[in-house]
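Design a sequence for this backbone.
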């Protein structure tokens, strides 16, 4: 079955150079991405890709999210994609994107990868963390691991703007690193003894059925998982070590909470100067992110709630200091499917196309 050609007189038409393909369109990340791209003033969706859903019209899968001319989902053939798209967002399981990336790059398609395939600068480290994928004979190019830019726009803005391939971070690393990195960069906290406590909604587990995510299992309950050795631990450590200039090991424990979307992180660290106040530390965050419209630093004593960021690309940060023991407490709330995934990818896409990073992105929650 052939896709219906896009109408050049369509309301979503934009100039060449702004055409975007989305592969893995029907997963939670893909759905958020398409919703944002559909209404974006600069980009046009020109290709939908999927393996299990190839040949189906979009309306058969997601009638609640209409797309212009109801396109047909196609096999993610890199050559086909390169004919109709300048950028591609890959929203695929780990170990799949790397099968498409080399040929896409050869055909001058710039890439944002939402999987973990290129998040590690060391291929050996990736193999240690993603053992299952490695044992399945997944092949990742070592040079592309080193080339890929880690996609936190507030920290890698200039590199993202010039990148051929951007590796979007996980939702847990995004929420953890945003409040933590300013203090590591300035050497204001000890590198040892860092603890991250994180809580996320069930959509973080993806759309494929899993027993732990069933309503009867997750409702009215909260449970830790991946208590030691969670995959995102080493990803957070990699970026924290890069910014601090020293090797960092930390404790990271995620928890599943009975909500659909949202992510709340609390980071605990030891101040090098116990005389620093919460107001001092708040100033550090404000100075770091004063030019970043997608980050909001809350006043001291106001703590973030996940409902305040639902359906937005906003990250809310807060800080407190326990004067008794010099403990720095950092808090961060994001929507795991948005700033933790799809809308942060669009933020990177904006930078890659020389737009303002917040263009077309929602920054105000529909409360409550």
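Sequence:
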């Amino acid at each position: 079955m052939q896709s219906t050609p896009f109408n050049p007189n369509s309301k979503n038409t934009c100039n060449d150079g702004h055409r975007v393909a989305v592969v893995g369109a029907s997963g939670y990340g893909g759905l958020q991405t398409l919703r944002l791209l559909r209404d974006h003033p600069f980009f046009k969706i020109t290709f939908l890709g999927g393996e299990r859903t190839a040949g189906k019209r979009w309306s058969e899968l997601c009638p609640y999210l209409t797309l212009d001319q109801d396109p047909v989902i196609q096999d993610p053939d890199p050559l086909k994609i390169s004919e109709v798209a300048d950028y591609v967002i890959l929203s695929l399981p780990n170990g799949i994107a790397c099968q498409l990336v080399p040929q896409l790059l050869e055909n001058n398609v710039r890439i944002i990868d939402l999987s973990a395939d290129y998040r590690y600068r060391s291929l050996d480290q990736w193999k240690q963390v993603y053992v299952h994928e490695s044992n399945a004979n997944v092949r990742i190019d070592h040079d592309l691991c080193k080339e890929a830019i880690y996609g936190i726009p507030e920290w890698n803005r200039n590199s993202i703007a010039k990148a051929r391939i951007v590796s979007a971070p996980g939702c847990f690393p995004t929420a953890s690193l945003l409040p933590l990195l300013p203090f590591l960069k300035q050497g204001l906290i000890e590198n040892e003894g860092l603890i991250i406590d994180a809580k996320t909604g069930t959509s973080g587990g993806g759309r494929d059925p899993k027993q732990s995510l069933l309503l009867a299992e997750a409702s009215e309950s909260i449970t830790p998982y991946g208590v030691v050795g969670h995959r995102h631990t080493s990803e957070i450590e990699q970026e924290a070590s890069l910014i601090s200039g020293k090797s960092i090991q930390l404790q990271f424990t995620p928890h599943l909470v009975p909500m659909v979307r949202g992510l709340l992180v609390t980071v605990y660290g030891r101040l090098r100067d116990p005389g620093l106040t919460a107001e001092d530390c708040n100033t550090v965050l404000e100075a770091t992110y004063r030019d970043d419209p997608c980050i909001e630093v809350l006043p001291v004593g106001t703590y973030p709630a996940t409902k305040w960021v639902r359906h937005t690309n906003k990250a809310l940060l807060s800080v407190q200091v326990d004067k008794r023991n010099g403990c720095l407490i950092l808090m961060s709330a994001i929507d795991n499917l948005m700033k933790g995934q799809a809308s942060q990818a669009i933020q990177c896409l904006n930078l890659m196309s020389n737009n303002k990073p917040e263009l077309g992105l929602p920054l105000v929650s529909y409360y409550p």
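DSSP finds 13 helices and 13 strands in the chain.
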